Every structure is written in C-alpha cells, then in structure tokens.
Amino acid sequence: MSETSNRPVLVVDFGAQYAQLIARRVREAQVYSEVVPHTASVSELLDKNPLAIVLSGGPSSVYDEGAPQVDPKLFEAGVPVFGICYGFQAMARALGGVVEHTGTREYGRTELGVTAEPGALHEELPGHHPVWMSHGDCVTGAPEGFTVTATSEGAPVAAFENVERRFAGVQYHPEVHHSPHGQEVLRRFLHDIAGIRPQWTTASIVDEQVERIRTQVGDGKAICGLSGGVDSAVAAALVQRAIGDRLTCVFVDHGLLRAGERTQVERDFVAATGVNLVTVDARERFLDALKGVSDPEEKRKIIGREFIRVFEQAERDLKAEGDYKFLVQGTLYPDVVESGGGAGTANIKSHHNVGGLPDDLQFELVEPLRALFKDEVRRVGTELGLPETIVQRQPFPGPGLGIRIIGEVTFERLELLRQADAIAREELTLAGLDRQIWQCPVVLLADVRSVGVQGDGRTYGHPIVLRPVSSEDAMTADWTRLPYEVLERISTRITNEVPDVNRVVLDVTSKPPGTIEWE
Ligand code: XMP
C-alpha cells in the first residue's frame, strides 16, 4: 500500500449533481477522490490530509442570499485547489477577483478561446475548442497573481491559474463529455499543477482492499449473500482473495431467476474464485407464498419477506457450524455519499435494516466496495478474474421474474418467460447490443390473451413485451431504437419456440412517464 494512495482529492459538493461525476473523473486520472459536503469547515477538510481540493459546480449565484461561500482560509493551507463553474467563481471571489452579474448567460456548448498565455492548463490544446458552460454570473477580473488562460464570449475570464500557489480553475464543466478536452485539463491540474502521482489503479484498489479486509476480519469468518449481480460477486471475490475459505457465500434460488443464472453462480463464479458456496433451493417456498397474488406491491413484499427469512435461516445454520461474525455487503460509494455518510465506518448492525432482528444474528459488516463507483467495481471484478457474463451483467431486479409476469406467478408461466427472456438476451448479445442498452426486461402478459394463427389452427395465446431501454442511472430512460432485423429475429424465435405465446410487442415508452419494469 503506498502512502499517497490513501490521501484523497476532496471534491466539495456545492449542491448540484456534478460532484460525483467530478470524483469519478479524478479517479480516471488515477487519483483517489472523495466527495464532501460544502458545509465541511476548512479544518474538517484539512483533517483528511487531502492531496488537493476541487470546488464543484453548483446551482447558485455567488450573490444569492445563503449561497455557499468558500472560506478564504482554505487558500492559506498550502493545499492545491481547482475551481469548477460555481466553485471557480467562489474561488475567484474569495481570492479578491471580480465576479459580476453581466446578464449574459452561457448554457450548453460554447467555444472556448485559449489566450496568448495558455499556461499549464491549456498549453498546446487547440486555440479554439468546444466546452460545456452553464452559468449566469461570470468572473470579469482574475485575482492578483493569476494568469487568464482562456476566455469565451460570455466569460471574459473562463480559466485562470497560479501555478506557483498550485491554484487553478475553469468556468466550464471539464467533467462532462461535451467538453472533449476537459479530462485532459483536469488531469493537468492533478498531475502537473498539484503534482500528484497517478497511483489509483485497479491493481492498487485490489491490494488496498485485500489488506483492509484482512485487518478488519483478522482470523474471523464471514458470510456473503450472492444475488448473481455484479456488486455482491465482486465483494465476495475480494473477500475470498483476502481470507480464502473462511468466507462462505450463500445463494438463494427463489425460482424467479433467469435461465442460466444459477449455473453462472454455482459453476462459473465458483470456478473463477474457488469460493465456498451454499445454495439454498427455496423455489417451492416462494411459489407457495406467491400463490394467488397478482398485485405488484404485494408480490414485492412477499418476495422480500421470504428472502429475508430464508437468508436468516441460512445464517443461523452457518453460525451453528462455525463462528461467523462478519457479513459482507456490496455497498457502493454513491450509496454512501447519498446517505450522507462519507467517512462512515461499518458498525455492528443488522443488514436488512428492518429493525428487530434477532439477537443471535448480529454481524459486523464488511463493505469492500464502499469507496468504489460501479465502473471501478466492474474493473476490479475483471482484475480478480471473474467472467465477463458476471462483470458486465445488466441490472436485474431483486424480485426477479416475479415482477415481470403480469398476473399470478406460477411455475409454468415462469418457465415460459424464462424461455422468451433467454431468446431475447441471446439475440441482443449476438447482435453486439449489450453495451448499448441499459437492460431489456422481457415481460409476460399472463392475464391477457389474443387471437392468432399458427400452422393451420387458430391460437389464443399470451403476448410477450420487449422493453429495451437506454439510461445513465435508471432514474430516467429512453426506449432503445433496436434494429428492425434484431427485433424481427427475436419475435420470430419467441413465437416459434415458446409455447402459448403468439405475439411479441415492443414498448416504446420513455421513463417518465413509464417505469422501466412493468410492475
Ligand atoms: P423502474 O421500474 O422503477 O426501475 O423504472 C428502475 C431500476 O430498478 C430496477 N428495479 C428493482 N430492483 N428491486 C430491485 O432490486 C425492485 O423491486 C426493483 N424494481 C425495479 C429495475 O430493473 C431498473 O433497473
């Protein structure tokens, strides 16, 4: 473990959605970063021993009442600072520059002009290049000692730097793809101006996490629930790397999985990691509990409740056999930031957060992905040798196919949906479309029948809905414009191969107004 890899670049969040993205970009420049709220005091920031501080964009005007300001003391600490958008203006103001409300707004793609003194930030970049702007106020006078390295029509000072003091800033958003040289500018600040060595690599993440897990778990034993998804698989693989067979994984087959998913865990994941695995076959139990239930929320409640019961029983069984004190969870960094617990350490608490967990099921949490973004988790998975099918898996809801059967869940309907879903997935993969779509729920309208004709006879079968969506974060989504030939192949194969299905329809609704799942 290197000494500097633990010291973060702190991204101060001024309340817009940019801070997490900036933190990711900093890490893409191979420098570890953390998001902190703008309410953190200068001494709280300095307590973290940061390598540099990035002030992010935000929605406010520096002149708004109650707008977050930057304490000028920050600039006396000898720590490099980079200001972005709002953070750039707040920085300018705190250092004695001039920020004005000129009435000229710039929003969206804007041409940036590099000045005759391009400095460390803009040297050798094209003299004019596009950047993404979003501002009302602008800096009209740089603080003393700063060089203005770029301008734009609406921002007389669009970038400045004081290399000696290791301060710099830009009015535009370097973190978004619409600023094609933005990542390079950020990289130059981090490596060239702040002088940080790029050391945050996938290999270093693995080494560091393995060491942390060993320190935390000592010679104890841990349990990890596998869902078949990326996060739990990578968390388990890391812990396995750290403590070997003192980790036992539990996989609950609730019968609502897609074709091949159990094999993926039982065969492929075990082959890749050598992990101890206990599979609990709870298929009948879930089907019994879901009998006669059509309401989506009720299904979710039942599935959630049964899952906890089955998992807790597995935990009890393991505890009866050995001294399992630790429970591994695949919590990711965005969850940590969003729940406001930046630096939080895992406490002894129940994993299900449902309260009233029996006393005999107290665990200490091990959360090896707590510092990582999803793309880093995938890279760590690859580094640990997990198969692509697991590492690149698209999101799949916990309640599984249970919420993709519109109507009562029965064994026959699940079988039918599994077949249709397998065909759709196979064809999408063959067509090379997996990376283009976020996910493609395949839905069985079990309570609907329509008339069809197959061979010589009339049919009265069920429709299957294809719901391919493109999305960044599942909060909003658009329906994916799949090539007609691919849709045709999927439709032909499903109606030919899946019994009792005589129609395939395409969902062309964005989110909002539709959700991604049908239930
Ligand atoms: P919706 O349908 O709300 O889905 O647009 C957004 C994302 O969340 C997934 N999803 C779930 N995941 N339990 C989960 O673990 C659930 O009950 C659940 N419902 C939806 C969905 O697949 C999509 O990625």
Automatic annotation (TrEMBL):
Its EC number is 6.3.5.2. Gene3D superfamilies: 3.30.300.10, 3.40.50.880, HUPs (3.40.50.620). ATP binds at S227, G228, G229, V230, D231, S232, A233. Keywords: ATP-binding, Glutamine amidotransferase, GMP biosynthesis, Ligase, Nucleotide-binding, Purine biosynthesis. InterPro entries: Class_I_gatase-like, GATASE, GMP_synth_C, GMP_synth_GATase, GMP_synthase, GMPS_ATP_PPase_dom, NAD/GMP_synthase, Rossmann-like_a/b/a_fold. Homodimer. Coiled coil: none annotated. Pathway: Purine metabolism; GMP biosynthesis; GMP from XMP (L-Gln route): step 1/1. Catalyzes the synthesis of GMP from XMP. It catalyses: XMP + L-glutamine + ATP + H2O = GMP + L-glutamate + AMP + diphosphate + 2 H(+). The gene is guaA. The keyword Nucleotide-binding applies. The keyword Ligase applies. The active site is at C85, H173, E175. GO terms for cellular component: cytosol. Residues 200-393 form the GMPS ATP-PPase domain. This is GMP synthase [glutamine-hydrolyzing]. HAMAP family: GMP_synthase (MF_00344).
